[in-house]
Amino acid sequence: MDKKKTGIPRLLEIAGEKRGLLIVSGTLSSISAVCMLIPYISVYFILAELLKNASNPSLANGALMIHWGTIALIGLISGIITMYLSGLSSHIAAYRILYGLRIKLSTHIGKLPLGYFTQTSTGTIKKTMEQNVEKIENFVAHQLPDLVNVLATVIVMIIAMIYLNPLLTIACIIPLVLGYSVQASMRTGEKAKENLKYYHDSLERINASTVQYVRGMPVIKVFGQTVHSFRKFYEDMISYRDYCVKYSDQFQNSYIIFKVMLGSTMTFILPIGVYLLSREPENIAFALTLLFFLIMAPGISVPMYKFTNFAATIADISEGVERIDKILSEKPIQEIKNPQVPKRFDIEFNNVSFSYDLADTSSTSTRKEALSNINFKSKQGKVTALVGPSGSGKSTIANLIPRFWDVEEGGIFIGGVNIRSIKTEDLMNIVSFVFQDSFLFYDTIYENILVGKPNATPEEVYAAARAAQCHEFIEKLPQGYDTLIGEGGTYLSGGEEQRVSVARAILKNSPILVFDEATAFADPENEYQMQLALKELMQNKTVIVIAHRLSSIQDSDQIIVLDEGHIVEKGTHEKLRAANGLYRKMWDAYTDAGEWKIQKGGIIA
Amino acid sequence: MKILYNITAGNPKKLRKPIVFSVISNVINILPFTLVMQAVKIIFESYSTGAPIDTYKLWLTCGALFLSMIAMFLGEIPAYRFSFRGAYMVAAEGRAKLAEHLRKLPLGYLTSRDPGDLGNMMMGDFTLIEHCISHLMPQLVGGLVMPIIAFIGLLFLDWRMAVSMFAALPIAILIIAGTSKLQRRVGKRHMESKIYAANRLQEYLNGIGTIKAYNLTGERFVRLEKAFRRFMMESIKIEGFLQPIVLTAIACIRAGLTVMVFVGTHLLLGGELNVITFVTFLIVGTRVFDPLTSALGNFSEVHYDEQAGERIVNLLNEPILPGEKIAPEGHDIILKDVTFGYGDIKVLKDISIEMPEGSLTALVGPSGSGKSTVLKLIARFYDPQKGKILIGNEDMKIIEPESLLQKVSMVFQDVYLFQDTIGNNIRFGKEGATQAEVEEAAKRACCHDFIMKLPQGYDTPVGEGGSTLSGGEKQRISIARAILKNAPVVLLDEATASLDPENEVEIQRAINELIQGRTVIVVAHRLKTVRSADNIIVLDEGKVVEQGTHDELILQKGLYYDLWTIQQKSSRWKMSS
């Protein structure tokens, strides 16, 4: 697929996915266009009949006039029906395309390394998937059929006009061409493009400024800076306004000329007509032709008003599509062709080096290795604890195991199989994670636990909940397991949420467990229960735990001490404590922190 | 009219100028049309009387047509300026007003609203309103000018013909009005499905880590797929159901041409209508319906945008906190018979607490006992529903909210950093603080060292929400900010100290620096940390159940004793398999 396409060709490519429906829509739209001309033509024929009998109106053919009146009505009704059907099919096509694009985007996003989400705010992704996708509807459902409609009208009309009188036809076309060329000269070209980009930039700036003002408002209030902040926001907004005003002033004359020209077809037709008429005043046929032009001319120009903002709208939509394509061109995590399935479940890091790729964010950020030459083995059935100051790389190690990122050097092996050779789906089934910020879905508690094993029986779900010490509080909720979480449902406390996510992991029961010692946020009265739940979960698994509270991992089989991406010490608690290195220092600091008192006067340690 | 009030966000006067100029330009735009009618009449007259065509008059008409082009151009200028420039002016003014209102709303309201929603209101909804005021409404009214003038003029010419031409108009209006309920219902369902899809998308993006870990990406995340599908179906339904209504109305309006032809033919043949009049009607009949049709389209769009205006009006009607008095000198804080709840659920029930100036008070209790709510009431996030809160013997309700907040520093779990340098983020605590003051505060909050390690030191920019720093670092910057503010009352959530276990000791030091010599109220989760508080207040289900010093409470063997025992147990826990 050629990804380089931008602008209208790219839009047509997107629209092409529902080619059939759109061809139907276009055909109906052109039929509708022709039908909607019929009332004008009918009026012309009635006028012709009247002109012929102008000297003695009672001789006029009444039946003929009634006939044309009826045809006008039939034309109108068929025009409206075909318009409806055309609109319906183009809208069905459009909304299907939007649906398809959104599914494609969300599937693609699901395959991207998690690093993508740390570099791109979810707000931006959301805006792209909602608004930028939505705008395509305008192109597919409205602009395309309108384009066909106007083209059909213009072609039919011009053919009829040329047949009747080429000179008058030219007179009729002149203002239209003038109007469009003035408009086009302003809207295209380098300067216009630059302006549009500048406009989008300043729009983004004011958006950011708004977000900052609104989000920061609680802090602003607390520090009594509302007036200052307000002034800053106000200035940003005024400068945005001034830019917009300047921008719109640029287009004032061209826009007005365009509008006046479209409304002035008759101003050009009439003088030519009068000139020709004055040469042969007896020619009733020419008088009729002139009449035809005067009646029909607005039939051409009225639909053209639809294109007043055509160029600007297209540019706006294309800008959005470029942002969509940018997401789609992000490289997903690679899947191997002949995947392997590991039979044993110990984990080995072999010479792993890794850095968060910040290459494309900003030039100032220095590329720093988050992990350098990491080597360790975590045996099946044993607990390996990762400790170290913040930023030492503990969480990075945990994030590399599910391939949230791919390593650059070295390899990670599960039971001897490189994780790159394992199908992502299988890998996810082998490993369970309990994150520090547990995430629950907007659904019932039951469904939230069931995520761990979609085909589990209710008994299994309850058992997992019991093991995770959450059965009791769930039963106390108004609808028990059927209680809806979040958004108008029940909000759980941090500790409760964590226990539900542990229940999920218990239900999943995978042989490898990676977890962030997640008890840090739990309410103290839940903490003990939480710990029991974790103990249950760890039975006979390969466990890798990111530890924050050193007391909890004292008995681990292996403690790996990290500092600035390097392994500096390895061993058991006793051995490391005796070694008098970083671990010893951390242990001492930790025991101090445990003794902290909020106290006035003496400051501890 | 309510709709006019809503679509202008409470300021219908704003419509006046754009509408006036739109009407003027529309009146001018009728000129060429009348002149052409004149020309057609001249031609017909010559055929009906047999006299030669009056070419002189026709040339005059041509000249007038060219003049009218200039008039049109001139008439469009103010209309353009008022609809485009005016749009930005109106929106800027409205945004300023909303922003001004926002800063006066109670903290409780602000923190309960999704900031994304509020931001969207400020930008998105105002864009709709701006469009409504400056484009839709003027077009709607302006578009009606020509049909109305035509109708009145034609009434004088021949009332039977004029009536027949617009005979079906009332039917069209009835169709639109009669189905407004259906329209609203379908519209509402569409809106709901849109919001639902947006929420599911947000969920998908927020939970992407978990979703990947449980193999639920893309189409396998059924909820999202279904939400997108439903949104698609509802969008198609709107088109399928509502379009026929509008189109039928349009058909009714335009069918007036045929009715008029029938009546005209009948009258003409009966000798009751002259040719010229009939011709006039026929020509008007080709033009008069286009503006009516577009007015109809504009009307439904206005209807849609009205919801945006309503949201803004509702926010503007949200009451601001009362109080004008300057905060008093003393800082004793007393809660007297305070009852407070969110919605119908009472969180605090008739509680009284005294916190003398300079003391350290700890609030403890199981989750949901109302301890955080007490902090929020003291900071006046909300006013109590019953009872009062006194500071320095003055009811908080009569104190100017900002003046009160100047007395209070808060260290809570969520820290917000502005998109600015670290130095300026700290300087937020005291307007115009010198670099030396900022650094002094940073040193006391244990953040000077890590700041100096950053590439640009105090001038290092931090991102939206401060995302480039760790939780603990952000927390310490917020403490530095509070130290710089130097407020006599400090409200503290103890859990903030454990946000970043690696740097716990540093945060703890920073907090102890902050609270020296102040009135301190702390919500505590780990009871160990508040053992030396002057007074520990134990809350349960919104009531004070015990209070006293640690030693007194242990002796009482009540709730505090139970909580203490449980916590002692968990701190001895070890992980092993």
Automatic annotation (TrEMBL), chain A:
Origin superkingdom: Bacteria
Transmembrane feature ranges: 21-46, 66-86, 150-178, 256-277, 284-305
Keywords for this protein: ATP-binding, Membrane, Nucleotide-binding, Transmembrane, Transmembrane helix
Signal peptide segment: none
Stretches assigned to coiled coil: none
Subcellular location: Membrane
InterPro entries (alphabetical): AAA+_ATPase, ABC1_TM_dom, ABC_transporter-like_ATP-bd, Type_1_exporter
Domain ABC transmembrane type-1: 23-316
Record-annotated ABC transporter domain positions: 347-589
SMART domains associated with the record: AAA
Chief place of localization: membrane
PANTHER family: ABC TRANSPORTER, ATP-BINDING TRANSMEMBRANE PROTEIN, ATP-BINDING CASSETTE SUB-FAMILY B
Membrane topology: Multi-pass membrane protein
GO molecular function, one term: ATP binding
Keyword Transmembrane helix attributed: yes
Protein name per UniProt: ABC transporter ATP-binding protein/permease
UniProtKB/TrEMBL annotation, chain B:
Superkingdom: Bacteria
ABC transmembrane type-1 domain ranges (all copies): 19-302
Predominant location category: membrane
Signal peptide positions (record): none
Subcellular compartments: Membrane
Ranges that cross the membrane: 20-44, 56-75, 140-157, 163-182, 269-289
PROSITE patterns: ABC_TM1F, ABC_TRANSPORTER_1, ABC_TRANSPORTER_2
GO molecular function: ATP binding
Membrane topology annotation: Multi-pass membrane protein
Record keyword Cell wall biogenesis/degradation present: no
Domain ABC transporter: 333-566
InterPro entries named among the record's database cross-references: AAA+_ATPase, ABC1_TM_dom, ABC_transporter-like_ATP-bd, ABC_transporter-like_CS, Type_1_exporter
SMART domains listed in its UniProt record: AAA
The entry's keywords: ATP-binding, Membrane, Nucleotide-binding, Transmembrane, Transmembrane helix
Protein's UniProt keywords contain Nucleus: no
Alphabetized PANTHER family for the sequence: ABC TRANSPORTER, ATP-BINDING TRANSMEMBRANE PROTEIN, ATP-BINDING CASSETTE SUB-FAMILY B
Protein name: ABC transporter ATP-binding protein/permease
Organism: Tissierella simiarum
